[in-house]
Design a protein that fits this description.
Blueprint lengths: L4 E5 L7 H15 L4 E5 L14 H21 L3 E6 L3 H16 L4 E5 L13 H12 L3 E4 L17 E3 L22 E5 L8 H12 L6 E5 L5 H13 L6 E5 L3 H9 L3 E4 L10 H8 L4 E3 L5 H4 L6 E3 L5 H13 L1 H18 L2 H20 L1
Helix pairs in contact: 1-12, 2-3, 3-4, 5-10, 8-11
Length: 373
Amino acid sequence: MIKKIMVVGQLPPPVHGSNVMTERLMEALRKNGRPAIIVEKTFSRQLHEVGKWSLGKLFKVPSLYRTIGDVITEEEPEYCIYFITVGMTSLLVDCLMLSKLRKENVPYILYFHGMGYRKYEGLSIPFLNDFIRKSISSALGGIVLGEGLKADVNHYISNDKLYVLPNGIPAKTEAPAEREKSQKDINIIFLSNLIPSKGPKVFIAMANEVMKKAPNVRFILAGRPASEKYLAELKSYIRNNGLEKNVRIIGPVYGEEKDRFLKEADLMVFPTIFNKETFAIVNIEAMMWGIPVISSPKGAIPEIIRDGVNGYIVDPNNLPLLVDRVLTLVRDPELRQQMGRRGKDLFYQNYSTEAYSRNLKKALDFFEHQLHK
């Protein structure tokens, strides 16, 4: 009888990278014939709650600790895949849960979706430093989203115990049509939650400059705002710069509405400035539809958006270069199509759910070899 794998993570809602990939992991485990049971560490149900602690969240900690113990007793999992967070408070909660796994002699693999672990090595409080180090370094190994992200955790887990497993999303059966639009009919999109660190203001500032040389290009921002106050701030920024004719905010898009939104796009610009950005699923969503992408040198993004191949990598602080790269693609429809085709090919090779399922099997083989040797 094949023993079950325990997964500790959170399923959507809210909809963001780590939660979505917890769901993908469970699906891929089923596809690979690996029985798994999930323990949800559900501390946030709304996007604005993520990363913020409250008394209500604190009361959930003992319950999660007991649930992990109950599942270990009832299911006797072979090992655990644990989605570990990076914020100080939530990381300490994770370390507490990992101490329970160690106490019950359950090996665990850490699934890193955030970035910023290296900073904890220099904590001035020895107890916390030791607690975090023991919790992470005691892992059987770790999963990272890109080769460049190993450096953030390899002071805790050596490179030979880290496995690169890129995120994956379902491929659409409907192929996007070749874009034959003229310069006067170009849609440049931003797709992400509308929060300051994802760069919507950088996108609007870029639009302001591009419109001076290509006045008929349209810019559309789609995503759920962090708050009504921030949404009002973005709209005010658009209005004060006289951009209402060409720049629109349409709110969140899901399902078929998101598909239509992407199918009508010619270029995506995702100028994230988020210090903990690791992968950015929105970039591979655009690649799936054959859309070239301009994004930031954050986390694993330069491994996904290959500069000059399926888009460009630009530091969001370098607005002139960002504008130049956008104008290059606005003025050259053939280059847009070439980059879009290359991105689509890379998507099917590396970032579809089928590719994720194949890569997950290799990852499980890698860790199980470590476990049984």
